[in-house]
Amino acid sequence: MTFQTIPAKFTPKHLDKISNLRCFSLDNSFSGKPVENHQDAIEFAINKMDGRLQVNKTTGEGRIRLHSNLWYEFDYQA
Q: pLDDT tens digits for 39-50?
């Protein structure tokens, strides 16, 4: 799988293409807990935690990896 990292200045134009955000963390035993307010969670992860938005337009998947014990995965509509 090849993910493309989206530069931070272009992140806002991709936010409306994200759905079905799931959080994988040590706190939830890496279960992929669905995130209800995904816009706020994504903005926090990118702006406050310095995460990078990565998308695979071919498979329609995306992720934001913050560190080894915390990341988000989502569906991406190219």
A: 899 989 999 999
